[in-house]
Amino acid sequence: MVLVAALIAILGQTSVTAQQEHGGQTSRDVPWLSEVQSPTEPILQITLPRLIDDQTTLEDWQNQRVTLRKDWLEFLNPIPRPQTLPPVTILSDETVDGVRRQLLQYTSEAGWVCEAYQLTPIAKSESKRASRKYPGVVVFHSTVNHSIRQPAGVEGKTEKAFAMTLAKRGFVTFCPRNFLWPSNHKIDANSQTALFHKRHPNRKGMAKMLYDAQLAVDLLLSHPQVDSSRIGAVGHSLGAKEVLYLAAMDERVKVSVSSEGGIGMTFSNWDAAWYLGPLLSNWQKQHDHHELLALVAPRPFLLVGGNSADGKQSWPYVMRASEVYRLYGSPARMGQLVHGRGHAVPPIAEKKIYEWLETYLR
């Protein structure tokens, strides 16, 4: 209970400060922000080192941030970014419920073909169709055989059709296929990872996922109706992992939601060859993912947990990152929604995921 009290004191300080400075949360914030910034029940004790101390200034942190980001990139050994966008082929083009849904194909890197769904709201007024700008969101699918067909609303559970639902709400969305899928219909993680490591023997699988995610942002930004200042990312499970790394390493992403990815390195299979690999334990002696959460600051970031991959065990990560967030001022627009429904997206989580994105990308 002592740890809970400490967490509440640390995480709740933001709300108190915001009330003192602004008379409470502003209209720019979700009304439940303070509710996702402190635990409501006892949590597991996970010892994580502080990233800053009580004397650290914002300038100190910004200098430290440069070094921390560099260390993580050296660990991943990232694939060099392309100088130009790849040609894109439209494989299918249809209109569904007021949304234009296109299946695209492009070469993500030499010899590696990728597909993605791009969904665009269709403006009711003909005169507004060319001129209207929408916020854009990259949507990452979870570990299901039907891959990008899930978020695009083609196949699978409707509560995970993030891209289709967001498009209906006025967002342009882009759903890239993860490299572990050689086609849109079946995962082949072992073979695809072996192929990747044959081409990139000294790079982490997450380096490939980060490369593909950043290319997805590039392609989303090339859409003539996307507002480049309003880019977000959302994903569940596998997709949540991609969101974490993309948000930490790419400041073009202004708002993020990571659902049930397992923020702690021991919370899920981060040591798999297609993520960070079996040598992760050596890196973990000095680092963990609260550092990536801190790299996202001060951009809004919502962690969603069902007490499976994320949940009450994730609060220490939120606590450490929130200390960095507060250096930028109040309120700290990050927290964790714990729905307690397992590795799923129940209605309460679905509702608040959309509210988070709509509030901070509008």
Short description:
The protein is α/β, with parallel strands linked by helices and 362 residues long.
Please describe what this structure looks like.
By secondary structure, the protein is α/β, with parallel strands linked by helices. The chain has one domain: Rossmann fold. Helix content is 35%, strand content 19%. The chain contains 10 helices and 9 strands. A 9-stranded mixed β-sheet has the order 1-2-3-5-4-6-7-8-9, sandwiched between helices. Residues 1-24 have low confidence and may be disordered.
List the helices and strands and how they pair.
Elements: H1 2-22, H2 58-76, E1 88-96, E2 99-109, E3 112-121, E4 134-140, H3 162-168, E5 172-176, H4 189-199, H5 205-221, E6 226-236, H6 238-249, E7 255-259, H7 280-284, H8 290-296, E8 301-305, H9 315-325, E9 334-338, H10 347-361
List keywords for this structure.
globular, 362 residues, Rossmann fold, 10 helices, alpha/beta, 35% helix
- What would CATH call the class? Alpha Beta
Radius of gyration, whole Å: 20 Å
In spatial order, strands of the major sheet run: 1-2-3-5-4-6-7-8-9
Q: What is the mean predicted local confidence, pLDDT?
A: 92
Question: What's the CATH architecture name?
Answer: 3-Layer(aba) Sandwich
Helix-and-strand structural type: alpha/beta
Count of individual helical segments: 10
Inertia-based shape? globular
Number of strands: 9
- The H/E string reads HHEEEEHEHHEHEHHEHEH
N-C termini distance: 39 Å
Low-confidence stretches: 1-24
What share of the residues does DSSP label as strand, in percent? 15-25%
The percent range for helix content is: 25-40%
Q: Remind me, CATH topology?
A: Rossmann fold
Count of domain modules: 1
Main sheet specs: 9 strands, mixed
